[in-house]
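hi! just following up on the protien thing from before. the input was this:
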Amino acid sequence: MAMPWAMTLYGKDVLVALSGNFCGRPRIGLYHSANEPGMAKFEIPRRDSSANSYLARTNWLITKCFREGRIGDARRVFDQMCERDVVTWTTVITGYVKHGMVEEARRLFDRVDAKKNVVTWTALVGYIQDGQSEEALKIFSKMLVADGVKPNEGTFVTVLGACSDLAGLSEGQQVHQMISKTVYQGCAFVVSALINMYSKCGELGAARKMFDDGLTSHRDLISWNGMIAAYAHHGCGIEAIGLFNEMRELGVQPDDVTYVGLLSACSHAGLVEEGLKYFDELVKDGSIILREDHYTCLVDLCGRAGRLKEAFDFIKRLRNKPSASIWGALLAGCNVHGDLNIGKLAAKDLLEVESKNAGTYLLLSNIYASAGKWREAANMRLKMKDKGLKKQPGCSWIEIGNRPYVFVVGDKSNSQSELICSLLHDLHGKMKKVGYVPHDDLIMDEDFAIT
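and the predicted 3d structure came back as:
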């Protein structure tokens, strides 16, 4: 028989003692501290008791372990179970995905010995949560040919998110066609995901059409927020404000998400005064709790407009410690407008909360360079290298005839790389003729290194 082991599930006072493999006599017990009066005990049944009760309680225990961040304990419980159902497998797979351990989730998924259901598949499509959207689409394709498994609302929302992340218009359109043949075509969450997908793929007109025609019932707040966010993504501030006003006229009350989209739209469109007005309105509305995203939007709004001192003073007045995103928005504004003094202060605070972000060093290096302080600029890049930080090379892709073509900065492996570079130089020249190309002289050789 295996040696007994114990793990703390609920702090010092409660232990889970586990012996053997849960089969037959060995069992799990939850014990309160002996110091507590009336010490109570709760046991997960032996295997020879009701199978349903055994599975329900062990599945519950695994869920608790993951919820408490006890990943190793969850896996030990799973490994010592002599019987598992689809809920067991799904619980562990979902737990791994939520904790960013997608490779472990995939390995477990591949050895599922119970019939995979839609929840199990959707958990794996959750690869998007770890930035592996291409893998998510591959898994979704396998799901479609799996016997008896059909996507549900959650699956469609997740896979549309993957399409949005990849700007995969053709894939998104195929998923849209599937949705149109299901009962989910009028679901608010699915329609919102479609709006987001078309917007991220550059099809703002299609996104608006989904908003106007996609819902079988009345529009709810989710769809309004989705369309406002789409306008924000494309810098259409006037349109976002118009939609916001229309929403309120129809009696739909905005929430915190609405204001994030609205403030972002004002920021991207340069509508500073309008953005400040709506932020002030938000502050005075006691029904909505302000969160980090609202503060970040306001700093970004002022930073893009060059009102950096105003943004910095606002940050200093915040009650809670500013997050990395807030300092990052200020530093980005300093980079655009070449404000070295505030830029140094922003970078210092940003590195305190996020010390391993190569982008911070590069932005401050660019700010130094724009001020003609080349030695300081070089020192920032040396510090970045000394810490083992690397800038991820820029990457883009295009699909022609269902074949993707990927382009990475500095990569000349493509047989037509000379022609591609020549066209880029021509485009660059035309951009200069029609407008300002910021910090064109600050691009350094190491920016093009392949990591």
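The chain has a mean pLDDT of 80.
The radius of gyration is 27 Å.
cheers
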